[in-house]
Amino acid sequence: MAKAEAATREHNFEVVGIARVEGEGTLKLRITDGEVREARLSIFEAPRYFEKLVVGRTPNEIVDIVARICGICPVAYQMGASMAFEHLFEVEVDPQVKALRRLFYWGEWIESHALHVYMLHAPDFLGYESAMAMARDHKHIVEQALRLKRTGNEIMKLIGGRAIHPVAMRVGGLSRTPTKAEIEALREPLKEALDLSKSTLKIVAAFKRRRSSATPSTSRSSTRSSTASTMAESSPPTASTCRSGAGAKPSTKSSTRAATPSTLEPTTAERTCSGLPRA
Predict the structure, then answer these.
(1) What proportions of the chain, in percent to the nearest 5, are helix, strand and coil?
(2) In terms of domains, do 13 and 95 share one?
(3) Which of 1, 72, 104, 140 is the most buried (most CB within 10 A)?
(4) Looking at the structure, do residues 136 and 42 belong to the same domain, yes or no?
(5) Is 106 in a helix, a strand, or coil?
(6) Could you tell me if 168 and 78 are in contact, meaning their C-beta atoms sit under 8 angstroms apart?
(7) What is the pLDDT of residues 100-143, one digit of tens each?
(8) Residue 114 to residues 75, 173, 176, 214, 257: CA-CA distances in angstroms?
(9) Are both 120 and 41 inside the same structural domain?
(10) 64 and 42 both lie in a single domain
(11) Are 83 and 14 contained in the same domain?
(12) Quick check: helix, strand or coil at residue 30?
């Protein structure tokens, strides 16, 4: 009996269909005597045959088609296709067009990063099953994220014609250029976006994972408690105080977080960061 009790305890887990990743994710864990000995994360994206779809198409048709590769980051694909044809045809792009394209790209970065950090990234670090569940405790923070994302969407709409799968990108330039008044109208939303971005940096700087002997429910509770104060302190000066409500019910699919529960700890970066990093 003593030998049986002393025997090594090993458990193997496989989580199939992980969400919030590009494609489909699978996680395999091997845990021996309570310690993770092996962890394998596999992300697979099925072929979509865009290479075949563009065969025989005109350059500008291809620029429009490749935008459909992704609804979040279409500018990257459109820019790549446009620049490839411009290089092929030896087209010199006007500096003003380059500046507008750069602004176009920035719009995508703003909306894409806001989506990733708040909707895909934060729930896992803070112990929530989704951004919707997180909103029950931190409604103001999620609204802040949506305002930041909207600013990026508005830039994409202005330069690209629409926020999802833009249509204005063309080989050698753009099918339409915004007016000076339209560009000026972005000034105030971008000022707010800068404050929101600084606030985001402080929130993200406080994300830290560590081992804990606390139970999953206790860990999630303490994490959310410390999260509330951190998020409130990280809000822009003009923002209202974050409202904290009832805890969200965790999903059974998120049980693998128990091995390395999340917690928030103030860091040097959190105290000192004061601006956006350079691109």
Answers:
(1) 55, 15, 30
(2) no
(3) 104
(4) no
(5) helix
(6) no
(7) 999 999 999 999 999 999 998 899 888 898 899 999 999 988 99
(8) 16, 28, 27, 31, 23
(9) no
(10) no
(11) no
(12) strand
Q: Yes or no: say if 257 and 210 are a contact pair by the CB < 8 Å rule.
A: no
Residue 1 lies in a domain: no
b/e per residue, 225-238, with b = 16+ CB within 10 A?
ebbbebbbebbeee
Model confidence over 221-236: pLDDT tens digits?
Answer: 555 555 555 555 555 5
Confirm whether 223 is domain-assigned. Answer: yes
Question: What is the CATH classification number for the domain harbouring 228?
Answer: 1.10.645.10
**Tokens linked to 154:** 């508005």
Q: What is the DSSP letter of 55?
A: T
Element (H, E) at 77: helix 74-88
Q: How far apart are CA 155 and CA 195, in angstroms?
A: 17
- Quote the CA–CA distance of 205 and 217 in Å, as a whole number: 24
Structure tokens at 158: 């202005």
Paired with 44 in beta bridges are 24
Bridge partners for 110 per DSSP: none
Q: Rounded to two decimals, what is the model's pTM? A: 0.69
| Best CA proximity match to 223, nearest among 269, 264, 273, 183 | 264
Rg (CA), the chain: 23
Please name the amino acid found at residue 197.
S
| Angle ∠(238,243,247) on CA atoms, nearest 5 | 150
Residues 6+ apart with CB under 8 A from 131: 118, 119, 120, 122, 123, 142, 145
Quote the domain boundaries for residue 25.
Answer: 9-46
